[in-house]
């Protein structure tokens, strides 16, 4: 099983700058995708914004981030989520976590196939903690 749990930070327009800063501190490998690369926004001002960035270090640190779309509220202090991610082999386990997290909470985005081909969903648990679940591949 390769399920991972890590922090996911939200920014308004400076996720790229922030992740480059963290990269300069922690080292490792930094990857970044824009909203344009996945046709995730029709707003021209969002095309170069960070849809997803990931920093992974050789000693096991992992940090993810994205720019919050203009249509969504951005409030510093509430700009984080906890991300659960894994391979399609972990789909049943991850869906089980999802089902338990949404029990008594609310679904922000249903757990379903996303434009990048993974199953992805967002929710807020009954304690107000924001979660993201990503299952690699076509885990239907």
Structural class: alpha+beta
Radius of gyration: 15 Å
Number of strands: 8
Q: Name the beta content range.
A: 35-45%
N/C terminus separation:
18 Å
Poorly predicted ranges = none
Biggest sheet strand line-up: 2-3-4-1-5-8-7-6
Order of helices and strands: EHEEEEHEEE
Shape: globular
Mean pLDDT over all positions: 91
The largest β sheet comes out as: 8 strands, mixed
Figure out the total of helices.
2
Helix content: 10-25%
Structure overview:
The protein is of the alpha+beta class and 140 residues long. It has 2 helices and 8 strands; from the N terminus they run E-H-E-E-E-E-H-E-E-E. The chain has an 8-stranded mixed sheet with strand order 2-3-4-1-5-8-7-6, with helices on one face. The longest helix has 12 residues, at 15-26. The protein is globular and about 35 Å long. The model has no long low-confidence stretch (mean pLDDT 91).
Task: List descriptors.
alpha+beta; eight-stranded mixed sheet; 17% helix; globular
SSE blueprint and pairings:
Layout: E1 4-11, H1 15-26, E2 29-34, E3 50-56, E4 62-67, E5 80-86, H2 91-102, E6 106-113, E7 119-124, E8 130-135
Short description:
Helix content is 17%, strand content 39%.
């Amino acid at each position: 099983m390769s399920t991972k749990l890590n922090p996911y930070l939200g920014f308004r327009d400076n996720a790229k700058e922030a992740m480059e800063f963290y990269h300069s501190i922690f080292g490792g490998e930094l990857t970044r995708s824009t909203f344009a690369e996945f046709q995730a926004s029709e707003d021209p001002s969002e095309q170069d914004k960070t849809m997803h960035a990931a920093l992974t270090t050789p000693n096991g640190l992992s940090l993810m981030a994205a720019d919050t779309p203009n249509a969504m509220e951005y409030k510093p202090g509430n700009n984080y989520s906890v991300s659960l991610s894994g391979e399609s082999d972990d789909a049943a386990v991850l869906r089980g976590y999802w089902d338990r997290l949404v029990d008594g909470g609310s679904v922000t985005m249903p757990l379903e196939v996303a434009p990048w081909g993974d199953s992805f969903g967002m929710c807020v648990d009954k304690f107000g903690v924001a979660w993201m679940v990503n299952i690699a591949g076509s885990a239907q």
